[in-house]
Amino acid sequence: MKKTALLIAALLMIPFLSGISEAANSLYLNNSKIAGRVLVIDGSSYISAESLAEKLRTHVAFFPSSGTVVFNGRHIKDFIKANGVIYISAKEASAAVGGMIKFNSQTRDLYISANPSKASAVSSSNTPIPSAGYSIPSPPSSMVTETSQQPSYGSIGSSSRPSSRFSSIRPSHSDGILRDGLRMPSNATISGVPAPPESPSFKRIHEIQQRGNFSPKSGKNAVFSVTVNDMEEIGSMKNGVSASAGKKYIVLYISQQNISKDPQIYTGKFTLMDEHSRVYDYLEGLSNYWLAILKPGGSNYGYIVFEVPADEHPVYLVLNAMNQPPLSIDLIH
Amino acid sequence: MLKILSMILVCLFASAMLAVPASASEKVNIEMWHAMKAEKNDALESLVNRFMKENPDISVTTKLIKSPDPKMYGNDYACLYRNIIQGLAGGTPPDIAQVYENWTTQFVMIGAVTPFSHFKGADAITQAEINDIFPSFRNACSFNGDMYAMPFNKSIYVMYYNKALFSKLGINPPKTWEEVKAVSKKIYESEGIPGLEFTPSVDIFGNILYTSGGEFIRNGSAVFNDAKGIAAMNYLREMTENNYAAYSYSSYKDFVGGKAGFIIETTSRIGALKNDCKFNYGITFVPGEKKAYLYAGTNLAIFSQDEAKKLASWKLIRFLNRKENNIELAERTGYLPTTLSASESPEYKKFISSNPGYETGIQALKYGVSQPDTAAWESIRGFITDAVMNSLAEGQDAEEAVNAAAEYSNDLLKGFK
């Protein structure tokens, strides 16, 4: 019934869109079926970002000021917004979690395998994280494979499709979205369309202000609990090392605890994300946070230093650890 | 008939294929990760090549870990450590690698490194070999009565002084910290340069602390904020406030440029000093009431989980520890021999007779003190360095500075328990 409705909707939208297809039947994350809509448009799949983020325990944010979506610390270029729901390109979502997507054209099911630590290696540039040690479930071999690295997209979209095609879509109330999954050409204007309510989880960023006292922020996943105890902005370190011209240092005083039952050998890598979704590695040479093997219950403590443009504001601290979805600490709220 | 013939041929071919690579497959390949650059890397490569000639069934690949940008990634050894733990977590550790004592503590905790008692029979370490290792080095590599690492590239803190300047002013190298103050005052007042110049870090604080009878950590708690620690920090403040001493990140360069009377650095500087220093210089013990000299440098540990690779790695360690190789590494790199037999050998004695300063290092080793082996040590080093900077550069009260660092350190020590 849903398929039929979408097809009808698609047919109605033919003057505006080409290549509209029906939604995928089911969405699987690491071989487990999860709730969340998948739309197929112009041969490309779009997933409800919020559903996926919730399952991965990662973060998705919509930045009205810059008209961008950030998922798992990665800037998503190809997305649509409908009725307050953000749908992000399955291909880019997959890249953001360092995994791959596979689409079974017979059952029309979409499979995503997530490898969050690998995603962190892509988004940050420090020492390479070994590829061994991950367990990425393998969907049935009959499926068409789409990876974030190789543009062999099979039945899901086209590698020649430029992501910039959608860069001019402003993800605001006048973005031309009429109904789920159906998108206007970017230059179209629509009148009389009620503005969809904005999802509270996407209300971020605009109101960043220079903070005074910082109250500790915490977050946890199944393995780690992380607390940012304090944050300060400085122009130079005590040892006299100054930030580059036009930049400043953000110092985060953090503690990290292993709340799992197993020792954690590599406790992950912290990155900082600003309001324009730029991701920064911390300066290990200026920081005092020495990675250590953490026993169950064990905790580490120290400070990490980031260099960011002087007019930027840190928004999230993200921990990317092996075999775990990224852990984002909201530094604003 | 043709089918049978074909099958026989296939079988014969398969047998031949299996037989041919047999000898090649017996060769054991091991990977060694280290952070020794330049002439130190050359010396290691040369020794490893000789090892492979001696052991044609073992192939060693050395991997030099270098930091592409110390500000961004930390120093070479920080990168080495990160690579090791990422390798362990990902199931791809090195077979053998350089490790500090506080790293080894963690690797022992999770069973990532092989104790030397694992090797039996002809491959077992002998009591003579164990006794030959400098006791302080040996103790620092031992956990629960077993050795898990072999001392490798070691150096110890000594004092380098401008002998020409001391002669000119009629002063002798200071033997106590009070003498350091007096000598520095004289140098400053007559020459306008600091007597002592140092890098503002945990190391200068530690050198004063230990030679004054203090310690960083005792029974699992930070104790560097006791009376001796506070006195050490106050001493540094007084020295710098009076210009008798100066802190900088170029103390070595300033010393060889004649802009400081003396510096306290490890013996790994001796080789470079010979080329860099244009005046007559001397090397002596770190001053202080107590002979307790901090040493630096790493050890070698075996990470491989494969028995053949473990044994091959162990053979390489024993090869490097052999007297003649220990001497060669020391002579080519400036590191100290790690065994008594090497340090007392006629060959090495001949070397140090023409390379003044090494003798001081060897003598100091008898009183060598390992840095703490707690997993928290690297971070604690940072806290103490911050305390030094807070006190010297920002005027924080010495007691407050060391107390704050000790408080952070104890939080960390509790977290790692």
- Average pLDDT rating of chain B: 92
Q: If you compute it from the alpha carbons, what radius of gyration of chain B comes out, rounded to the nearest whole angstrom? A: 25 Å
Strand line-up of the largest beta sheet of chain A: 2-1-11-10-12
CA-atom Rg of chain A in angstroms = 21 Å
Determine the oligomeric state from the structure.
heterodimer
Instruction: Quote the beta fraction of chain A.
Output: 25-35%
Helix content percent band of chain B: 40-55%
Helix and strand pattern of chain A = HEEEEHEEEEEHEEHEEEEEEEEE
What is the count of helical runs of chain B? 21
Question: How does the major sheet of chain A shape up?
Answer: 5 strands, mixed
- Indicate the low-confidence ranges of chain B by residue numbers: 15-22
Number of strands of chain B: 14
- Work out the helicity level of chain A: 10-25%
Supply database-style keywords.
heterodimer, A: 333 residues, mainly beta, five-stranded mixed β-sheet, four-stranded antiparallel β-sheet, 4 helices, 10% helix, B: 417 residues, alpha/beta, eight-stranded mixed β-sheet, two-stranded antiparallel sheet, 14 strands
Structure notes:
The complex is a heterodimer of chains A (333) and B (417). In chain A, strand 19 and strand 20 form a beta hairpin. Helices cover 10% and strands 32% of the residues of chain A. Chain A has 333 residues and is mostly beta strands. Chain A has helices at residues 2-12, 49-56, 90-96, 116-123; strands at 26-29, 32-34, 38-41, 44-48, 60-63, 68-71, 74-76, 79-82, 85-89, 100-104, 109-113, 144-147, 217-220, 224-234, 247-258, 269-274, 279-281, 299-309, 314-320, 327-330. Chain A is built from 4 helices and 20 strands. Chain B is globular and about 70 Å long. Chain B has helices spanning 2-19, 22-25, 38-54, 70-73, 76-90, 101-109, 127-132, 135-140, 163-169, 177-191, 202-211, 227-241, 251-256, 270-276, 307-321, 323-333, 340-343, 346-353, 358-365, 377-392, 398-416; strands at residues 28-34, 58-64, 96-99, 142-143, 146-147, 150-162, 196-198, 217-218, 221-222, 245-247, 262-266, 281-284, 293-302, 368-369. Residues 15-22 of chain B have low confidence and may be disordered. The longest helix of chain B is centred in the last third of the chain and has 19 residues, at 398-416. The A-B interface holds A 126-133, 238-241, 255, 257, 263, 265-266, 281, 283-286, 288-295, 298-302, 322 and B 67, 69-75, 78-79, 81-83, 85-92, 106-107, 109-110, 112, 200, 249, 375-376, 378-379, 382-383, 386, 389-390, 393-394, 408, 411-412, 415-417.
